């Protein structure tokens, strides 16, 4: 018997990763949470929170919202690890890029200040 | 190991989902991702789009950090006076709520599609498209206000740092383009769902459309936090 029987190895189109059906209430709950988180990040601006606290709060609310959208709405929570790795390993390069460009931005500013402001 | 054992292994349904499962997904003689190719292609497209938007936002970070002029106060630039009250950033807040709501309706459309309820699927997809269109409409209003009343241009503006205009039009323009494309995509697929085009093939296409739409919402989460609130 041949080792690879193409037909058997490939599941039928219909039963390919049919997602589990969740009750509609799940989406309403997540929607409510996203609403609350957006309101909270808007309030950070409304009450003019400044400095480190402002940036921390903005980033926390942003990460929570993004997490909810990716895990629940985009179904990543129920996907296999093989796909999660494809989705989350490449963006690590972006983290490196952000740090490089932050260093570069600081460097540019310092040089501009030196050449345009001091004697 | 007998031949029977070998065969049992080859035909084992799906390995458990841990690191060993991931290795066997890649290493076994079978297709790696157990999903329709369209869904995988959408994921790969979204991954590449993640890089596009990240590069825009990183560019924005870089010019904002190195700008010597003061950065315009976004909560004032995007404030509106409604019924005599001056409310900071209100238009952007409304746009955020609209996009989140559209993500919720889209998730429900996907769910109803897999339940086989065509009428509700079309209804929720149409609602999503309508919300998306209203988002683009408000963005058009925001742009015209900034261009005509405030005099903001991609190469400079009277409010402060010139880079504000450049990054604003670039980032929100690209995002608005994605929303517009999403509205068209939604309407096309909704029409085909209504016509019963997918009865034989299954409703994965609604999930794929949904992935795109949620991604557009996801990008807005980052733009809202990093451009409008920062």
Automatic annotation (TrEMBL), chain A:
Major place of residence: membrane
Membrane topology: Multi-pass membrane protein
InterPro entries: Cyt_c_oxidase_su4_prok (IPR005171)
Transmembrane portions of the chain: 26-44, 56-76, 83-103
A GO CC annotation given for this chain: plasma membrane
Pfam families: COX4_pro
Subcellular location: Cell membrane
Protein keywords: Cell membrane, Membrane, Transmembrane, Transmembrane helix
This protein's name: Putative small integral membrane protein
Automatic annotation (TrEMBL), chain B:
Domain of life: Bacteria
A single Gene Ontology CC term: plasma membrane
Matching SUPFAM superfamilies: Cytochrome c oxidase subunit III-like
GO biological process: aerobic electron transport chain
Primary role: Cytochrome bo(3) ubiquinol terminal oxidase is the component of the aerobic respiratory chain of E.coli that predominates when cells are grown at high aeration. Has proton pump activity across the membrane in addition to electron transfer, pumping 2 protons/electron.
GO MF terms, alphabetically ordered: cytochrome-c oxidase activity; oxidoreductase activity
Transmembrane segments: 40-63, 83-110, 122-141, 161-190, 211-229
Family under the similarity heading: Belongs to the cytochrome c oxidase subunit 3 family.
Swiss-Prot/TrEMBL keywords: Cell membrane, Membrane, Oxidoreductase, Transmembrane, Transmembrane helix
Subunit structure comment from the entry: Heterooctamer of two A chains, two B chains, two C chains and two D chains.
Name recorded for this polypeptide: Cytochrome bo(3) ubiquinol oxidase subunit 3
Domain Heme-copper oxidase subunit III family profile: 39-230
Major localization class: membrane
Membrane topology summary: Multi-pass membrane protein
